[in-house]
Write a structure and sequence with these properties.
With about 290 residues, the chain is of the alpha/beta class. The chain contains 13 helices and nine strands. The radius of gyration is 18 Å and the shape is globular. It starts with a helix and ends with a helix. This is Amidohydrolase.
Length: about 290
Amino acid sequence: MTGADDTDYLSAFRTELGLPGIIDVHTHFMPDQVLRKVWAYFDSAGPLIGRAWPIAYRADEQVRLKTLRDFGVRAFTALVYPHKPNMAAWLNEWTADFAARTPDCLHTATFFPEPEAESYVAAAVQDGARVFKAHVQVGDYHPGDPLLEPVWGLLEDAQIPIVIHCGSGPAPGTHTGTEPIAGVLQRFPRLPLIIAHMGTPEYSEFLDLAEAYPNLRLDTTMVWTDFSEADAPYPIGEHSRLRSLADRILFGSDFPNIPHSYGHSVHALERLDLGDDWLRQVCYHNAATLFGIE
């Protein structure tokens, strides 16, 4: 499904479930020069990617925004992430401006383990940030770094969700996997983490963490798509736990950096056959409750 086929499919999907839209907690909007470097990395199939990864929605910012809205996406994020020091504060300035001119985007911010992190994270919270992004793989840092202690404490107190890529897919990093993030949760048990990509490929281990920590959530980004199933198939035996955690799973797509159509991201969930109520929660209601969307 692409183009008009996607639009028609997603419209029918929303109508059948009685949803006012879709909320996508895992989309990327970045400064143009940064996004183009990200696309170039995907094009090169760099070591953090590991295989050919065509970008399905390579277009100018306004075209990408119109595409999401045409698909019925009612709210989304602008996930940015630094790969080095002295970058996060500048990215936060950009995302604050983007949110101000894009009312359907949840004001997004980020951080990196550096001495200034507490200060600019506090400033972003004061400025109205509603969700943060952390990327352990790309940033190549340990989430338990002492420089992040005040950041985790601040975000736990503020109860602002953090979409965090900490699983070892698509390629393992120095500090990916459940053990580093479990150590953070032991110290900050109320931290409202959203585990990106369901924690791929450590699916079962991250479900264990979700059962142990009630504030932990997971996003569906790319999981169960044909692309993901070919490399890191989700264990069928865990479907019962997907049902029991239905109120803590959120839809994510990775738009625009996906190697398939947007509709396929939704269809991959529909074909799990976990029921209409599960789909309603995952594709809209869980995120609407979390972010206070009417």
